[in-house]
């Protein structure tokens, strides 16, 4: 039996990440870039992206989350889940992320982007500022979480082309950062991601962790 994974605050007993440092109100103009978070459904991509963006903003950095699910409900609502549409979905996200990076933002993409070729296309679109982050959790762990009940629907045959069940996921072979969300706590993963983001796109003195674990009771 798979133990409950630690990533989701509801499962791990931790509150949302809390910054232990004051907000830097200064307007900063650091170089932009794209952090592309890829992983199975339920691996923790959106949770990490939102937490990271909040902490970056608290340090005066411009950050924008581009969440795959949210974009499919708006910009990409005309797309389905065929192979061709999935490639187009990733291409559009990459184009938008590139625009934010060019404007000096740290764009944090949270998208399954299941094929290596899709992520390669995104890297070509973004260019030198692209960083691939593998949010790694086993299928068993992700299915045990199943926060939206999608795995259950997929197992019942109600969802076609669902990544991890009826459609493959190609894990990165050489990601710039790997976060093992099935075995590490939420706070630990956010700290690692924050440290990486600041080293890549922040300033030299910014790279200390600022997240603490808070017991909920």
UniProtKB/TrEMBL annotation:
It comes from the Bacteria. One of its GO terms (cellular component) is cytoplasm. Keywords: ATP-binding, Kinase, Nucleotide-binding, Phosphoprotein, Transferase. ATP binds at residues 39-46. InterPro entries: APS, APS_kinase_dom, P-loop_NTPase, Sulf_AdTrans/APS_kinase. GO terms for biological process: hydrogen sulfide biosynthetic process; sulfate assimilation via adenylyl sulfate reduction; sulfate assimilation, phosphoadenylyl sulfate reduction by phosphoadenylyl-sulfate reductase (thioredoxin). Pathway: Sulfur metabolism; hydrogen sulfide biosynthesis; sulfite from sulfate: step 2/3. Its EC number is 2.7.1.25. Pfam families: APS_kinase. It catalyses: adenosine 5'-phosphosulfate + ATP = 3'-phosphoadenylyl sulfate + ADP + H(+). It is an enzyme of class 2 (transferase). Catalyzes the synthesis of activated sulfate. NCBIfam families: apsK (TIGR00455), PRK03846.1 (NF003013). HAMAP family: Adenylyl_sulf_kinase. Belongs to the APS kinase family. This is Adenylyl-sulfate kinase. It comes from Burkholderia ubonensis.
